[in-house]
Amino acid sequence: MPLKVVVDADSGIAPWRQVHDQLIRLITTGALTPGTRLPPIRQLARDLALASGTVARVYRELEANGWVRTARAKGTVVTDAGDRPDKAALLRAAAVEYARTAHDLGVDAETALAAVRSAWSAREPGDA
């Protein structure tokens, strides 16, 4: 199964972060199950038109946080759920990042919460 990761150069989000966040989403939604082998760094870099160092950074970050494990013979594989951060921890981290961004934009808490409510209700069917 091909990996469904897309990098949008116009998004304003660093390419490594886009790939990182998409891989975490694929893992948390079950699209990438434990034991699934990720493409080699050079292959994914070529597929996404990124530098190998960019993809290497993604894999290092994912491994440091327990999402994947790298072994010479097996490559980089998705870890078992017990080896990863729990959903509550992920949600807290996302909330902290969002609150920081909203604060940096100079919006108040009610405006930030309204944006979350709007985004929540606009989700596509099947979104996690």
UniProtKB/TrEMBL annotation:
SUPFAM superfamilies in the cross-refs: Winged helix' DNA-binding domain
Signal peptide start and end residues: none
Upper classification of the organism: Bacteria, Bacillati, Actinomycetota, Actinomycetes, Pseudonocardiales
Cytoplasm is among the record's keywords: no
Stretches assigned to the HTH gntR-type domain: 13-81
Any Pfam family: GntR
UniProt keyword Transcription regulation, yes or no: yes
Protein's recorded name: DNA-binding transcriptional regulator YhcF (GntR family)
Coiled-coil regions listed: none
Top-level lineage group: Bacteria
One function term, GO molecular function aspect: DNA binding
Keyword vocabulary terms for this entry: DNA-binding, Transcription, Transcription regulation
